[in-house]
Fold this sequence. Notes:
The structure is a single chain. The chain is an alpha/beta fold. The chain has a five-stranded mixed β-sheet with strand order 5-4-3-6-7, sandwiched between helices. A three-stranded antiparallel β-sheet has the order 1-2-8, with no helix packed on it. The protein starts with 10 loop residues before the first helix and ends with a strand. Helix 1 runs antiparallel to helix 2.
Amino acid sequence: MKKSQVLDITWEDLQACLARIKPLIATSDYLIIEALVGTCLKVAQALSAARVSIARLKRFFVGFRTEKSEDLLKKKPQNQEPTATSSPSPADGSQKDKPKRKGHGRLGGDDYPGAVRIPVPHKDLRSGCECPQSGCKGKLHLMKEPSTELRFFGQPFVLAKLWEMEGLRCGTCQEVFRAKTPEEALGPKYDATAVAGIGLLHFGNGIPYKRLEQLQRDMGVPLPASDQAELIKKAGQDLLPVFNELKRVGAQDDLVYNDDTGNRVLSLLRKQREAKASSDKGKGKGKGKRKGVFTTGIVTTTQDRKIALYFTGAKHAGENLDDLLRLREQNREPAMQMSDGLDRNAPAGAKTVEGKCLPHTRRQFADIIANFPEECGRVVEDIGKVYHVDGLAKERNLSPEDRLFLHQEKSAPIMEGLRRWLVDQLLDDKVEPNSGLGKACAYMLRLWEKLTLFLRKPGAPLDTNIVERALKVAIRYRKNSLFFQTESGAAGGDLFMSLIETCWLNGINAFAYLVALLSNTARLAERPSDWMPWNYQATLAATPPPVEPAAEQVSGVSCPRGPPSSGLVAQL
């Protein structure tokens, strides 16, 4: 059989080839060929990423949709105690007492704080009137809860108001007399609500400027992408003091999560290519030069709040964490750091108490469970038992110290048994060291002390899920907008994503927060510590309301006998 050649063809070439084949063969045969070509293309794309193992590639086509224990082990978890909130099923198998899932069901009127509320009084009756029911002499009283009717209307995201001031011209002297501009029409062209909305859509929800421009144009309120970019650039400069204060506060927290994901900054990539080209002319051939661009996510937590920070550039997560911890006060104890097993997540200069993520280690066994179902199933089940204990601690709302005692009582024996089993597999030659199972066992043992930090330190988590979820904001932006043009643009994106995700982590309305900041830029520059997401409402409440001038009393409209004031006169 002749050896096949590797062809460098594009998707357009494949489509053209399929179009030529389609009229020559039966429809059923064509559908098979089209499916095979699509499958080969998927495989080529996955392999070209150079980050997929054979096991993951296999699961991509025929394996598990998730890494849940039920899917990996193909059975329901056994030998687990019922949780505090669970209750036994009725004897007849009915589901009468099954609790309703959170977030399901109809929403009430109070769930729409942004809706325009229009009071509708009764047409014929008022409170205090006699009951119109025949034979009843009672009095009517106003009910506390009115009935409601809810309707939804489409509109552009950024609204526009156009004031048309009436003008009158004298036929003799040609002077023009225009109506006074209303107070509402005075101020910047783009209100703080418009700028906050653009920032929330672009960086929080990943909507590119061009896509928002198209939406606004279709809705009859054009908003050019260049104007959006300029507004966000100016807003980023105004909000920089708050971002710097957020970094300073986060550096003092005792628990830090960090990780990174790939990104693209065109100006930075251009510099890297030029540096590589110049170094290739020398002897070093560019060895040791940084070639990638990353977005680092750092989440810091206390018992009262959480802070999310993003940094986009050539630095890895550990280097960005080093920069952040330089802001930490000298008299504080080293922070507890949670990350995955990559060495680039560890800071080189700052001292931390390192912990590692259990699910990342678990994935080493999940990838090869089809080849070693009994051995890998043992690891998956034991880690599941530890998570069950952690779930009990959350349900009981235990303090960090009580949670530590619970894990030491119930999880420590499980983890110690797992450690002995891993050692036995390698020392007793029960597994080949170079096999997938042997490498997974060695990897877990190498990180054992850091994986079991939750058995020694109060408040130490089991995983890095919180920063993994936070990185989805940057990933969503990357998938939609593809890249940042400049490093300054990436810095502005980091600022907005940090403020928005911090609000979301603390259950705060991100739009209202951005509006408050952009409406008080001078004040936040003086005291940024008063404008954190968790205390800005108290700052606003403590601000005395502005004294508004008394409204003019207008009894009617009549022609003035004398000339109008100079403020109402405008020359053409």
